[in-house]
Design goal:
Order of helices and strands: HHHHHHHHHHHEEEH
Shape: globular
Number of domains: 2
CATH superfamily of the largest domain: Ribonuclease III domain
Distance between the termini: 49 Å
Radius of gyration: 19 Å
Length: 237
């Protein structure tokens, strides 16, 4: 995981890799890693040794959880597991990841097939969140925890600063609102399922009275949370 030997000349920089490295704030010793991290499964065919970013996403998800838990415990030393857990769940949720990915410009360097590009897949929250986790996986495999930690603390500076109080789970918050304002309970329904068996994508719609919210995620439970969060965000103040 160490960087390149100082006496070994670095090959001429690849323009795409140079842009990815600038976004992530890290010079890669293994140049295939940033390319793999930014390769959507639709674009992996025909890329030779470069596979899709799903393997790196799997690693990055665990790296993000560990480093975020470490940061939260340091930042909020008086809080216990329950409050820290709610903070963590929010900060690693798909909507936050997608927002961070868009803010740092990952969609510009994400490689997808031409058909998927025309369909607007680069703007999908699931795709952006997965790419961000893959980037973290690449950072970890290339340099260990330090570059991944530095990137997370920079990229998540705004979301974590906005957490004055531990957030409520969106499903719990919506249920409380529905009970107080509507005297009813939210109704969740899977309205679409796509993707291959190993990487499904669920679309869930939640309804409370005349209000609806839609969420998309890799599991039904995560999609329900995303739908609840979307509905809450659209409620009148």
């Amino acid at each position: 995981m160490a960087g390149p030997h100082p006496l070994v000349p670095r090959l001429e920089a690849d323009p795409l890799n140079a842009t990815i490295e600038s976004i992530l704030g890290h010079t890669f010793a293994q140049p295939d890693l940033p390319k793999e991290a930014m390769t959507h499964r639709s674009a992996a065919i025909g890329k030779g040794s470069i596979g899709s970013n799903e393997r790196l996403e799997f690693i990055g998800d665990r790296v993000l959880g560990l480093i975020m838990a470490e940061w939260l415990a340091e930042r909020f030393p008086q809080e216990q597991e329950g409050a820290l857990g709610r903070r963590l769940a929010h900060l690693v949720s798909q909507p936050v990841l997608a927002t961070v990915a868009e803010e740092i410009g990952l969609s510009m360097v994400l490689s997808v097939s031409s058909g998927e590009a025309k369909a607007g897949v680069k703007q999908r929250a699931t795709v952006l969140a997965d790419a961000l986790e893959a980037a973290l996986g690449a950072l970890y495999l290339d340099g260990g925890l330090p570059p991944a930690r530095a990137f997370i603390r920079r990229a998540w500076a705004r979301p974590i600063a906005e957490q004055a109080e531990p957030p409520k789970d969106p499903k719990s918050a919506l249920q409380e609102w529905a009970h107080k304002r509507m005297r009813s309970v939210p109704s969740y329904a899977v309205t679409n399922r796509a993707g291959p068996p190993h990487a499904p994508e669920f679309q869930v719609t939640v309804t409370v009275g005349d209000f609806t919210g839609v969420g998309v995620a890799g599991s039904k439970q995560a999609a329900e949370k995303a739908a609840a969060a979307a509905l809450l965000a659209g409620l009148p103040s």
